[in-house]
Specification:
The protein is of the alpha/beta class. About 35% of the residues lie in helices and about 15% in strands. It binds pyridoxal-5'-phosphate (PLP).
């Protein structure tokens, strides 16, 4: 029996998508092969990848002057590729809103002058700091934010005005959760395993003018770490993660069938409301985040008693509600309620929390 899986990532996938993939597992279309077995140079596979890209462009309304790249190495490799590719004058601004933002910042430091314009570390990243644009470097090569902070359960509700400085956003845990205006960004990146598909592929959406020719740059930037390599070769310079890309295509098809990103947003807001409303009225559980910046995707909560947290996580699991432990660095609990988590799962979680509260207060 399938459980309700609240994992932060790899995370729940739509059951319909898994069933479709199962039905095509051994024979995809009329090809007589699994997608897993196909040459990445075959016409059949190229159609799979092109379809995935076309759906992503449609669902996210990606303008024509942006490229979609499929890259391996996760969001972590983007922490390297972004400074390696974009740091022309070797300056960049970062907002430190959590562990991922901090990691991206630390990696970028290896490649140039990096400025932390604001941080919410003083209150364990429980809010998004106010930004003072006079602290922004007008000549920075890029300005980096982590749009949704998976571990701490916060998100940007307003984008910084960075003027001509390209805004770069880590959207690993919020891509496809609601409509966005891609034209406001220079580069968007997201690993697939939160809200887009299985692990193995990372999507980079990059404005054309930011794809620099780095062939004359010294020290040499490895071919596989240059965006241009992917852009010039339709992400087929080497073997891409073919099956992960196929699965992302199925997820995008599912999103489209459900009504696209405005429908996802409505459903995600409904789910988050059910959970936050209960948390706000609970005598046992508390959401430690500034209300204004609450994430729609990752809902954190604590009882204030570590033993009780552990008991909750264990009993929840026995009731088919799994992966509710907070990130190993922060403890407590976290329910990740990505697109594929049905509202019934959130309702069942809240019912279970109510019973647990009645028995433990
Ligand atoms: C999960 C996550 C990462 C790390 O992704 P990997 O694919 O493991 O490198 C980075 N940033 C955010 C916002 C995440 O949620």
């Amino acid at each position: 029996m399938r459980v309700y899986n609240f994992s932060a990532g790899p995370a729940v996938l739509p059951e319909d998508v898994l069933k479709k993939a199962a039905s095509e597992l051994t024979e995809y279309g009329a090809s007589g092969q699994s997608v897993m077995e196909m040459s990445h140079r075959s016409k059949e596979y190229e159609a799979v990848q092109n379809q995935c890209e076309a759906l992503l462009r449609e669902v996210l309304s990606i303008p024509y002057n942006y490229k979609v790249l499929f890259i391996q190495g996760g969001a972590h490799m983007q922490f390297e590729m972004i400074p390696l590719n974009l740091m022309k004058s070797e300056n960049a601004d970062f907002v430190i809103t959590g562990q991922w933002a901090e990691k991206a910042y630390k990696e970028a430091k290896n490649y140039g002058e990096v400025n932390a314009v604001a941080s919410s570390k003083d209150k364990t990243f429980s809010y998004i700091p106010e930004l003072d644009s006079s602290k922004f470097n007008k000549d920075a090569d890029f300005f980096h934010i982590c749009q949704n902070n998976t571990i701490f359960g916060t998100r940007f509700i307003e984008l910084p005005d960075t003027g001509n400085v390209p805004l770069v956003a880590d959207m690993s845990s919020c891509i496809l959760s609601e409509p966005i205006d891609v034209s406001k960004y220079g580069l968007i990146y997201a690993c697939a395993q939160k809200n887009m598909g299985p692990a193995g592929v990372t999507v980079v959406i990059i404005r054309d003018d930011l794809i620099y020719d780095l062939s004359g740059v010294f020290p040499r930037i490895p071919t596989m770490l240059q965006y241009k390599t992917y852009a010039d070769n339709n992400s087929l310079y080497n073997t891409p993660p073919t099956y992960a890309i196929y699965m992302c295509g199925l997820v995008l098809e599912w999103i489209k069938q459900k009504g696209g990103l405005s429908a996802m947003k409505e459903l995600n807001e409904q789910k988050a409301k059910v959970l936050y409303e209960y948390l706000d009225n609970s005598k046992l559980f508390k959401n430690p985040v500034d209300k204004k910046y609450r994430s729609l995707m990752n809902v954190t909560f604590v009882t204030g008693n570590e033993e009780l947290d552990k008991k909750f996580i264990k009993q929840a699991k026995e009731n088919g509600l799994v992966n509710l432990g907070g990130h190993r660095s922060v403890g407590g609990m976290r329910a990740s309620i990505y697109n594929a988590m049905p509202i019934e799962g959130v309702q069942k979680l809240v019912d279970f929390m109510k019973n647990f509260e009645a028995e433990n207060v």
